[in-house]
Amino acid sequence: MPDLNLLITLDVLLAEGSVARAAKRLQLSPSAMSRALARLRETTGDPLLVRAGRGLVPTPRALALREQVSRLVQDAHAVLRPAQSLDLAQVERTFTLRTSEEFVENFGPALLARIAQEAPGVRLRFVSKTDKDSTLLREGSVDLETGVVDPTASPEVLTRALFRDRLVGVVRSGHPLSQGEVNAQRFAEGRHVYVSRRGQARGQVDDALQALGLTRQISTIVAGFATAIALARDTDLIASVPERYTAHQREGLHSFALPLALAPFTVAMLWHPRLDADLAHRWLRGCVREVCGQ
User: What is the arrangement of strands in the sheet containing 238-242, beginning at the earlier edge strand?
Assistant: First the structure.
């Protein structure tokens, strides 16, 4: 019969990457933790942690086990914990959300109003999302992310769709494209501002134009939609931006449907399985979903 306490020891060892720190966290002596690591090596048939310089690094087998072991320990704690109910008025907690600035500007006010009403002790910390890497979710330094789900994203991350969106064109009022029908030819002939967080020089709009035998002139490349809209407001540049994501920033501008065959996309929220059953986190996910569904 396997000793299931070894699972907890393994979880802490893999999280800490240090016998001394793991011993301190589990309130054991370093020698007792060393003996536990020896038993784990014997049980799994793998060294698990090997010395590299002054520290220890996990073996490939340990890396493969880390998520599974963490989930098993979380599930065991959940099984053995008494059923909880959440008193939102008593919750004192800061949640870190990794999102784009446009998400904060367009959905933040309603989300913050809802949270202030239901759980005044909850604080939101927004950090900027510059890539699709889910490492911060795995490490626990981010509680919730929003964005378009990458098909190659880490399979251990959980996702839930928030809303569908599509790209629309934006120009200043009085721009030639604010009058009359905008066809692909007229659209391509204008000067464009292109949004690329990675600094790329072309995207799906250019591919769709190319399929029609057309090319557009990209005069400026910027890193965010809000910047592109600000430029379109004060120049003759044309910006192509997500419709729902930028509703707030596009006020006072002329928006139009793009004359191209572009698929809509889904914006979702992402979180790590370790927080899936957490009652306060589950409540927060419900708030985000309802605010985005309005």
Answer: 217-222, 191-195, 238-242, 167-171, 254-257
